[in-house]
Each structure stands twice: as C-alpha cells, then as structure tokens.
Amino acid sequence: MNNTTALTLTGRNSSHFTRVARIFAHELGVPIELDVVYDLRQRDAERFGGHPALKIPTLHMGTKSLWGTENICRKLLELAGRSGDRSFVLCEHYADDALRCAQELVWTAMSTQVQLRMGIAVCKLPADNAYFEKATASLIASLAWLEAHIDEVIAALPSPRTTSVFEVTLFCLYEHLVFLRSAPLEPYPKLRRFCEDFSRRESAQATPFFMDAKP
Ligand SMILES: N[C@@H](CCC(=O)N[C@@H](CS)C(=O)NCC(=O)O)C(=O)O
Fold first, then answer.
1. For the domain that residue 178 is a member of, what is the CATH number?
2. Nearest to residue 170, comparing CAs of 200, 137, 192?
3. Which of 10, 15, 16, 17 to mutate to test the pocket of ligand 1 (most atoms within 8 A of CB)?
4. Looking at residue 4, what is its pLDDT?
5. Residue-wise DSSP of the chain
6. What is the reported pLDDT for 3?
7. According to the model, what pLDDT value does residue 215 have?
8. Residue 124: what pLDDT?
9. Residues 106 and 158 grouped into a single domain
10. What is the pLDDT of residue 181?
C-alpha cells in the first residue's frame, strides 16, 4: 500500500458512521471518494463493498478493504503517515474512565439510532413495539448522561489536539438526530453548543447529511 493509492469508501451521505470516517479523512487531508449504497435492505455483501455483515462504511485501498468505523479512522491516520501524531486522539489514547464511558455511550447510541431507523422507517415495523420503545429509552438516557458529563469528558481529552474520535462521533450522532428528527433535542443544550462549535469546521461543512437519490 502506498500513499498514492486512491481511496474509496462504501457508504451513504445519510450515514453517521460513514460521516465519521469522512470527517477524519478530511481533517487529515486524505482524499476519499464515496461509493454510495442506495438500498440498505439488500442481502448481497458485494452491494456493501464486500462487508460480510452488510453494514457501511467499508474503506477500499486498492485491492484491500477494511470495515469498522473506528478501524477506518485508525487506518486513515496510518495512510496519512501520522500514526504517531497524538493530536488525532483515538480511543486507545483515552486515559480517563468518564471519557471511555462517554465513548461507549456514543457508539451504542449510534447503533441504537440504526436499529430504530432500520426497524421503523426502512422496514416499517410498529414503533410501539417494546423492542423499539426500549431502544428509544436507551437513546434518551444515553443523551441525558452525555449532556450531564460533557464538560468533564471534553476536559479529559488530551490537549492540544486537532480532533478526537469522541468529538467526531458525538457530532455525527447529534447531527444525525437533527437530520432524521428522531428524538426531541431540547433537553440537551450543552450537546447542541458543542455541535454548533464543531459544525464550523471545514470537515463538517464538507460532509453534510442528505438522502442519496437513486440514479
Ligand atoms: N460497527 C459498525 C456499524 C456500522 C453501521 O451500523 N452502519 C449502518 C449505517 S449508519 C448500517 O450499515 N446499517 C444497515 C443495517 O444495519 O442493516 C461500524 O463501526 O462501522
């Protein structure tokens, strides 16, 4: 693998996991082309860039592929020749338990959002099923915890830094909730302020959420 190999990301413009990888690439100055999956209900791994679990995103580097958003962020740092650059804070660099807990809640909330979206909006299952009601309760409680702890968690990140997996994932989670209007966001003013600040970055502005229209 050399630094001139073109990179492609199988994903969607409406996907918060995809956006995490794209923001990371942008912050690192690594060009990456999006290969859009138009229908998430498909059952053929080839339609998901070869991802056996039928998920997005997958990063393609010549003949090699890598899936898992966190893996992709780590790989992008390597590809940019900046593995040792601690101004990009990966999860393995966290030294604080509140920060580790917060990251776990953000990943979980992102997956819960997928569960709700795939189940209710895409597959048209009843929203009042106990399965989705529990998922919604989990999402709301996670957001409340993040709102209550965001100051200490941000303070626990190494400084100075360019960015961190925590900040990028929190931004993408919150913006995705705004985009899909899937939860009332009034109870979380601190999360909103954090995301307003983050949204001024070029990387955020270059990767807005929108629904990909089938060609
Ligand atoms: N653990 C995976 C999760 C990826 C994920 O859930 N992606 C969503 C889109 S944002 C997806 O593929 N949803 C389709 C499905 O769940 O069937 C990662 O880190 O990349």
1. 1.20.1050.10
2. 192
3. 17
4. 57
5. --TTS-EEEEE-TT-HHHHHHHHHHHHHT---EEEE---TT---GGGGTT-TT--S-EEEETTEEEESHHHHHHHHHHHTT-TT-TTEE-GGG---HHHHHHHHHHHHHHHHHHHHIIIIIIT---TTSHHHHHHHHHHHHHHHHHHHHHHHHHHTS-SS-SEEHHHHHHHHHHHHHHHHT-S--TT-HHHHHHHHHHTTSHHHHTS---PPPP-
6. 58
7. 81
8. 96
9. yes
10. 86
Look at residue 182 in the predicted model and tell me its pLDDT.
81
Among 30, 61, 87, the domain-final residue is 87
Q: Is 55 in the pocket of ligand 1 (CB under 6 A)?
A: yes
Enclosing domain of residue 97: 92-201
Same domain, 57 and 156: no
Q: pTM higher than 0.90 for the full model?
A: yes
Q: Which residues of the chain carry a pLDDT beneath 70?
A: 1-4
Q: Is residue 210 assigned to a domain?
A: no
User: In the prediction, which pLDDT does 100 show?
Assistant: 98
**CA–CA dist 128, 7 (Å, integer):** 42
Is ligand 1 within 6 A of the CB of residue 51?
no
Domain membership flag for residue 208: no
